[in-house]
Amino acid sequence: MKRAKQIVVYVILTIASLVMLFPLFWMILLSLKDFPEQYSGFVQLLSAPFTLKNYVEALSSDSFLVYFLNSLIVAFFVTTGNIFFCFLTAYALERKKVKINKIVFLTILGVLIIPQHIVMIPLYRLIVSFGWINTYYALIVPWVVTPFGIFMVKQFIQQLPVEIEEAARIDGCSDWKIIFKIVMPLCKPILVVLGIYTFLTNWNSFLFPFILTNEEGMRTLPVGLAFYLGKQSIDWGHLMAGASFSALPVILIFLFFQKYVIKGLVQGALKE
């Protein structure tokens, strides 16, 4: 019976994996065909000759490389900022016993339930008043620290034994040394999870980069790919090639850091 249950579980997981991987397969398949919209069926599309023309033309486009670089810059600085500022804020909220900390934490939880679309117009007017339209400031500063990141790191720090920090403090360590030499390495799994989550969110972000930029030189990759969608037709070949390049960093990051993702989620979910 145990063997039969394992087989059933593996079959279900295999089917689920194939279902989730099929969109990726479909995207790559379309990107490797010249004018894929001319084929009426899956079999006809699959038997058509393969070509790298769409990838070559996408890479040779100056605009595409600018979009890619903009997305990379924005995602890198937003991710770095979240790891640093969310960690410091979470540590202060958890370890520094100040009465106002509870109010601040409740405020952060309250912000989590507010949809981002509600703040779209106030944020746009604020960015305009700062003169940040079509700048990296508009794409980075509003998201350099997030309530979800603070909440997630705080819950992880909560399970760390305070005795380690107290022992280090007795040995003469300063607060900053305790934070960066002791607590931060212990928080590495959850910080990696936060970094990957933040990178993916900003790498795929479309709405705010779309409304906060109107120059081609400041567009990010999702916004740039949207311009392959014409009013009368869609350039599926180049769109799928660009989307494949866009998905590549995400896939590589997950493959390299998947053990930290699992470790961080498991440790964050269990408390001793």
Primary descriptors:
single chain, 272 residues, mainly alpha, MetI-like fold, 14 helices, 74% helix, 0% strand
Can you offer a commentary on this structure?
With 272 residues, the chain is mainly α. It has a single domain (53-269), classed as Orthogonal Bundle (MetI-like fold). It has 14 helices and no strands. Helix 9 runs antiparallel to helix 10 and helix 11 (188-203) runs antiparallel to helix 14. The two termini are 33 Å apart. The model has no long low-confidence stretch (mean pLDDT 86).
Offer a quick outline of the entry.
The protein has 272 residues and is mainly alpha-helical. Helix content is 74%, strand content 0%.
What's the number of domains? Answer: 1
The total of helices stands at 14
> SSE string, helix = H, strand = E?
HHHHHHHHHHHHHH
What value does the average pLDDT take?
86
Question: Helices and strands: which structural class?
Answer: mainly alpha
* Helical coverage, percent range: over 70%
Radius of gyration: 23 Å
Q: What's the count of strands?
A: 0
Q: Say what the CATH topology is.
A: MetI-like fold
* Backbone shape: globular
CATH architect. name: Orthogonal Bundle
CATH superfamily: MetI-like
List the helices and strands and how they pair.
Elements: H1 2-31, H2 42-47, H3 53-60, H4 62-95, H5 100-112, H6 120-130, H7 136-140, H8 147-158, H9 162-170, H10 175-186, H11 188-203, H12 207-212, H13 221-226, H14 236-269
